[in-house]
Amino acid sequence: MADLRDEDVIAVQRGPKAGVARGTYRAFGETLRGLKTTLARVAEKPLTIQYPEEKTPVFPRFRGRHKLHKFEDSGLEKCVGCSLCAAACPADCIRVVAAENDPEDRVSAGERYAAVYEINMSRCIFCGYCEVACPFDAITMGHDYELSDLNRSDLIFTKEMLLAEPLERTPLRTEDE
Amino acid sequence: MPRPTEKTITFTIDGREVEAIEGAMLVDAARGGDIEIPVFCYEPKLGAPVGACRMCLVEIEGIPKLQTACSTPVRDGMVVNTGTERVKGAQQSVVEFLLVNHPLDCPVCDKGGECPLQDISFGWGRGNSRFIEPKRHFVKPLALSPLIAIDRERCILCYRGVRFSQEIAEDHQLVLLERGASTFVATFDGHPYVAPFSGNIVELCPVGALTSRAYRFRARPWDIEGSGSICSLCPAQCNVTFTVRDERVLRVLSRDHDGVDDGWLCDKGRFAYQATHSDERLTTPLVRDGEQLRPATWERALAVAAGISRHAGSAAALIGGETSNEEALLLSRLMRDGLDSYDIDSRSGGVLPLELLRSLANPALQATVPDLEFANTVLLLDADPVDDAPILDLRIRKGARRREMQVLVASGRPTALDARAAEAVRHAPGSGANIACALDAALSGDTQRSATLARDGGADPEAVVRLANLLREAGEDIVIVWGERLTDGPSGAAAAQALLRIADQLGLASRDGAGLLELSRGTNGRGLREVGALPNSAPGFGEPQREGRGWNEIATAAAAGQVTALWLLGSDPARDASNGEPWAKALASAGLVIAHASTLSPELGAHANVVFPAEAGAEREGTVTSPDGRIQRLRPAIGHGGQVMPTAAVIAAIADAVGFEPGFSTGSKATEAVAEAVGFYAGLTSDEIGGRGIRWQERDAASALPAGTAGETAAPPAAAASPNGSLRLGTYRSIWASPEVEISPALKFLSRSATVEISPEDAERIGIGNGQRVELGSNGSQLEAVAQLRSDVPEGSIFIESGLTSVGLSATEGELVEVTAK
Ligand code: SF4
Ligand code: SF4
Ligand code: SF4
Ligand code: SF4
Ligand code: FES
Predict the structure, then answer these.
(1) Which of A131, A160, B428, B596 is the most exposed place for a label (fewest CB within 10 A)?
(2) What distances in angstroms separate CA B37 from CA A21, B19, B28, B208, B753, one per listed residue?
(3) Does residue B248 sit at the A interface (CB-CB below 8 Å)?
């Protein structure tokens, strides 16, 4: 400290000390101002939702857990394993490994199908780009947001999980809500 | 032939003054001004442009109509516009026309993501389609061959594949059938397009019409990584890029190198990567347990191999052709300095005197691979590039087609280039040395000696004289391509001397574009010699501390109990040697047989004590030296599969166990050690080699090569046996005779069984027909094979395929065998 030079020292400028009146206002006045907001809410009903028994409805375009789709008539998978969703995904969390269809025992309608289709939900940022990229509307964003799990690897959703009808646990918002 | 000189001119493109090489096509010249002109059919590798697709239309001032930039050479002062409304309109129309019949099924198309048609439609197309009529339809996808799928709906008729087949590979199989909108690519009668180079059309096709069946639907461009390395399956050492996804090689692409492969690959190099992930590949060490080889731990396997210390002084090593320079140096150090054993060889044909090896390595005498294209004349001496180093076949064809290069052939077995040759001399199998000597005599004017030698070698003396005359008038740049088999056996030295004298008489040393080019048997045949994997040479062709036994003597010594341990580094002598029988005996008598292999041949299975799993091409690291002295780097593309360990690490571990410290094992340290050991590689580092390799002859250190002399004149080669009712045996190793081909699912259909090529005359005399089973007999051994009648096989000779596990005939090239119908 001994060799501190003058230009190294910055003096702190303080305001004048508060007087009695100003001190009292500080102690009580400000507190009362805060209490005013609090007391004004006493009469209102609570807004808390009793999650998980009760759930907030989401907008129809809410982007939650993905779904893979099948054609309703033929039961074939819509996904042809083109990997375009994987290319569009900014989080790089989709993995598609394609394979060739056996014409006798088709999986999808095209020449190829997705032998492996995985989405790593722990990385997904729910941007919906995959849905936009898909040329066959094979993948869409669902409404489910309850995706937590105890194990990271369980968050890699496989094709079977994504194809299965998810438990629709999330209520949709109605028009007027 | 002097290479064309280049003159620079200036022209204007889109208002910019740009310099270009005179005569270059506008498409290429425009790149100098950072202007991209879209193309489909233009591919300079295919030769002169054909202007088939019209995608490259541009406006040239002074010419009323739009011109195709791919086939218009640039001239001084030319003014070109590529961005005017007229050009844009034309480009949009061309794209629209191309898409009229195109299915646009990109999501299921294998080209998607790396498709020029996608890119060009996006960049130069209209963006929407006015076409509502039905498109043309074909059955799809169809197999054009077991390796290639064709989708004719996607074809834009750019002619690229057809041009490759007609003008590059010259297999003349692919053609365009029908006319107009119904045109489609096919083979004439619909037979599968099977040819040594067929896979190149997949890489050439600008759309998804020709796709690889092995790569079908495996990955998209954004799923994969490319990793550059070298194909280690033959001496051509083509530059390749391995396509890797999830630590698996999925495809092999060419990594265009003018000085090596000219941008092509053969189908073995392109599809044999599958062996890497084949279930049949060995991936664990095996140790003999009584009668059986059983999987074992590395500790156990290394401990068994370390038992070689008990054989110090009587161990021998055979170094296989695919071994890298580093591995070979490491093993020969361990053998010589750690185990006091000097019996090391990498040449299966016999030992050549050190003096001759030095003379043949003389940088002034060395032709380069591009010389094959620019020479005035190429002479093939007992070599057939299509089997020995396939890609060079295309190089020679290119020279012959585009530059009217003269091709001359003198060989035992008919070659693929015979049809291109101005003169093709046939001699008795195994008598290449006689012809080399006869040619030398004929060149020096000694017609009489030449005639005797030629007759001894089973060749037509007049043809040899004609060959000599053609050579004398062949122009300044002559390249002699000779096969390693020329210097096989007792007459090897005589052949090498004749070769040197021929080179001297033709003045090859004084011309840059002329010289000799040896096609060795093994991928790294040249490198192995240069790092001293020979019984009579130290690294860098130095004087050896002590001379050891060569390949054939090792076999005899092992059978006699003088060599008690055999180390087979990537070599399977029963398979590699033309005469496998003595090796079967040698392996049976040796006390310890250490092998590195990726598949087990019956002989190894029966006799090896420990087998280490060999690395696959894409896993390897190290350097190899190409036939023209280019040192190239193998770089690992994937991690080791199964329990495989780097070969160098295995050798180092064994060295460690026997208490020898070689001072290096893997990585760039090892490359430095090679540079230090081989005088003329001095100072070489991995960085200097880089991705393109470097020819050591072009470095200053080349002067460190000890000068050689021709040595004492060797005795003239013995006369070939006269058939006299039996037939002379010739062997050849086809490009498909390799373990990789046998275990690659895609290539299996090409893997070979024992066949014997026989002339129709002999076949008729013996009474056999094409495809019939025959029995060959010699010295009490028998071999069953299928007869294949081939009209250009000379009467009196037969050729059997070597490099197969099942060949067990006890006879060498040129010996007589009996052929009987079965
Ligand atoms: S929503 Fe976005 S981040 Fe998630 S998978 Fe789709 S593209 Fe990827
Ligand atoms: S979900 Fe759609 S975009 Fe993704 S692979 Fe399947 S078809 Fe292609
Ligand atoms: S060739 Fe190209 S444009 Fe045509 S379907 Fe395939 S990817 Fe799409
Ligand atoms: S020519 Fe030889 S090096 Fe080239 S790809 Fe074929 S096998 Fe590999
Ligand atoms: S690239 Fe010029 S016509 Fe095809």
Answers:
(1) A160
(2) 83, 17, 9, 21, 50
(3) no
Structural domain of residue B427, as residue ranges?
Answer: 355-519
Q: Is A72 exposed, middle or buried (0-12, 13-18, 19+ CB in 10 A)?
A: exposed
* Whether A128 contacts chain B with CB within 8 A: no
Burial of A106 (0-12, 13-18, 19+ CB in 10 A): middle
Enter the ipTM.
0.85
Give B284-338 pLDDT, tens digit per residue. Answer: 999 999 889 999 999 999 999 999 999 999 999 999 999 999 999 999 999 999 9
Contact between B484 and B525 under an 8 Å Cβ cutoff? The reply is: yes
Q: Please, which residues 578-637 of chain B have a Cβ atom closer than 8 Å to chain A?
A: none
Q: Is B40 in the pocket of ligand 5 (CB under 6 A)?
A: yes
Cross-chain CB nearest to A110 (options B107, B218, B219): B107
Residue B1, domain member (yes or no) = no
pTM: 0.92
Which residues in chain B have their CB less than 8 angstroms from residue A87's CB? 113, 220, 222
B119 within domain boundaries: no
Q: Are residues B151 and B253 in the same domain?
A: yes
Token look-up 């930039």 returns B69
From B107, B216, B219, residue closest to A84, measured CB to CB: B107
Domain range enclosing A133: 66-163
CA distance A103 to B458: 59
- Residue pair A167/A52 in contact (Cβ under 8 Å)? The answer is no
For residue B414, give both structure tokens.
């008919």
Cβ–ligand 5 distance for B39 under 6 Å, the answer yes
The reply to whether residue B220 touches residue A82, judged by beta carbons under 8 angstroms, is yes
- B672 and B583 in a single domain? The answer is yes
d(CA A96, nearest CA chain B) in Å: 8
Q: State the Cα–Cα distance between residues A61 and B750, nearest whole angstrom.
A: 56
The tokens for B112 are 């998607």
Smallest CA–CA distance, residue A125 to chain B, in Å, is 20
Q: Does B225 touch chain A (CB under 8 A)?
A: no
| Distance (Å, whole) CA B665 – CA B674 | 11
Contact by Cβ (8 Å): B471, B408: yes
pLDDT tens string B370-389: 999 999 999 999 999 999 99
**B622 three-state secondary structure:** strand
Query: How far apart (Å, rounded) are the C-alpha atoms in residues B375 and B373?
Result: 6
